[in-house]
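Provenance and format

Records in this collection were gathered into a single text stream. Each protein contributes a sequence line and a token line. The two records reproduced below are adjacent in the stream.
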Amino acid sequence: MNKKDMPTLDLHGFKTDEVFDALDRFLRKAEAQGEEKIRIIHGKGTGKVKTKVLEYLKITNYPAKPELIGKGRVNEGALIVFI
């Protein structure tokens, strides 16, 4: 599955107190559809949204890794989450 086909949640513009609910809804839907992995775009910004995303994933035990972009470089604004 390439990035275009991967279900993606873009959290740009979300406030930190909205992150948990958005992730929960998105992950439940992805699980119900039988997805194996999803992409979460948390952006770079201040890092507050990314911190909330990582906190949620830790609490719910979803493994994740940074998204890789060409030649092994890391996209600092996105994570791949394994369901």
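Adjacent record:
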Amino acid sequence: MGFIKELKIEGINYTGNKYVCDKCFGDYALQEYIRENAVSDTCDYCGRSSDDNEIAAQLHEVVGFILQGIRYEWDEPVNCVGWCSQEGGWVGVSVIDTHDLFADELELDIQHDSLFSDIIDSIDIYEWCQGDPYSLPPGEEMFYDWKEFADQIKHRIRYVFFRVLRRDRRDVFDKRQPHVILNKLGELVNELGLINSLLAGTEFIRARISEKKLRPTVKELGPPPLHKAIYSNRMSPAGIPMFYGSIDEKTAIAETYDKKDKKKRYVTVAAFRTMKDFKILDLTQLPDFPSLFDERKRHLRAPLIFLRSFLADFSKPIKKDGQEHIEYVPTQVVTEYFRHIFRDGSRDVVRGILYPSARRKTGKSCVLFFEDKDCFQANIANEDEDKKWLCMYSSSVKVIKLK
């Protein structure tokens, strides 16, 4: 089979012996491919040349690599979409031509108009649609599964997570069962490397709002004892105390202060430091979105779409209007899963979650799975200090009068 015919089968029109360098694209995966497959010392588009190294790859090979990446998420409608001659087009699916696909959907950041034109001319495919066009894109489907899970947890089933077995299949949650969603979330967390070690000495600021000045003691400023944990919080239901804090004072206050509550006159802040290393789930630094042309990481595109949508839902502000105890339920369930069931790749437990603040754009907050008995106050004798996880420093206590 001839060279030109082979290209034609791949969907490529041969446009001559042209070479392109990595500087002509902004996509990192495409740049890497060109560097690894460079065979010319001169680029036909930007004019760059080198006396020492090959810097440009053959254009038709680059286009072939681009088509491989496109086909990971896109397909030709003739392969997967019904055609209705009476309607005069493809049935129920949005179809896009190759020019618009490159101009509006792909993020190749092509640097030269002549290169863009040559790429379009070299592709012998005219129309595209999303792969599996009659289904939701994988990232959106996963997020809708999460939304369905949240609705189930809030309004249908809350305390029983084993597989529901009934004769009426309409009552079975299938892949949206709570335990399935949670296990999938755990798999994503491990695959994306979101479990980090928090080192001893890490400082978190805790704030408490009150009508009167509080005593500067760990009993007043630490997590509430069991009998006083009577309110639902974002990660913990009533009766299950946990430590909430933030990485800075402004975020700690923003997370706890409700301007509508005119009775509260003081905010007291204190610094707590971790006494031991431990693992946490870090939701504040999700990995960068991988390129469609990154063969090693592009399978993470859909999970990251889901996880970013999930995180926005997870950390969104919730209006305290009497319904917050219901709205908190999904995040409470997720928290309990990571506290009691989840294990990382080393089979270690996690002892907290770091997440973006719901009240301050640049802030970070945490929930640590520690109670009042896990905290102590510096410079006050405590014979069990080696068994504690958090230390409050008296010198850090500050009382601020609210305006």
